[in-house]
Design goal:
There is one protein chain. Strands 1, 2, 3, 4, 5 and 6 form a six-stranded parallel beta sheet that branches. A two-stranded antiparallel ribbon has the order 7-8. α1 crosses α6. It has six helices and eight strands. With 193 residues, the protein is an alpha/beta fold. It has one domain: Flavodoxin domain (Rossmann fold, 3-Layer(aba) Sandwich). The mean pLDDT is 90.
């Protein structure tokens, strides 16, 4: 019997409630509806006082270290950030600066972002994909971008966006399941070596 998928989402939202966190939770739930998993949401706005001033990972408190390890040990990542001045938030980048550069190799990553208008929709392809390409992660084929008008009371309300999120997850599932099935095989192979 295989263990549940470790599904971790990172929200770059700076406040609570956050549209980025709401979008990340929606995507987590869609994946959990399809694959047995353990879900974990990291809200960077809540962690900010603990790591915003740190320069080195060794300076971080245990709480932040646990969240970094959760990302590094995840089977699948969902990342969602608000767009701030044309890119992901500085806090989002600062958090990922602490992730070991080899920790995300071949890890499936579903990219999502929120912004005030459609004009920021390219942040997924122009900002997020290059960041996760550096980590050699497998960014999933469809990203999900939501505007302020797509939410009501921090819940997705736009039917087209809800359908795009479902399609993004459906297209991601073959890679997610392939990755999950490969983990026990790779672990056995490493033990036999």
């Amino acid at each position: 019997m295989t263990r549940p998928l470790r599904l971790v989402a990172v929200s770059g939202g700076l406040q609570r409630p956050s549209k980025a966190a709401a979008l990340a939770e929606h995507l987590l739930d869609l994946i959990a509806d399809e694959v047995p998993c353990e879900q974990h949401l990291i809200e960077l706005g809540q962690l900010a006082p603990q790591f915003a001033g740190a320069t080195w990972r060794s300076q971080l408190p245990a709480m932040v270290e646990r969240e970094l390890v959760a990302v590094e040990q995840a089977d699948v990542l969902v990342v969602a950030t608000p767009v701030y001045r044309g890119s992901y938030t500085g806090l989002f980048k600062h958090f990922f600066d602490f992730i070991h550069q080899d920790a995300l190799i071949d890890k499936p990553v579903l990219l999502a972002a929120t912004g005030g208008s459609e004009r920021h929709a390219l942040v997924i392809d122009h900002q997020l994909r290059p960041l996760f390409s550096f980590f050699q992660a497998r960014t999933l084929p469809l990203g999900v971008y939501a505007t302020d008008q797509d939410f009501f009371d921090y819940q997705l309300q736009n039917e087209a966006l809800i359908q795009r999120a479902a399609l993004a997850v459906q297209r991601a599932l073959p890679l997610v399941e392939m990755t999950h099935q490969a983990k026990p095989y790779l672990a056995e192979k490493m033990l036999a070596a």
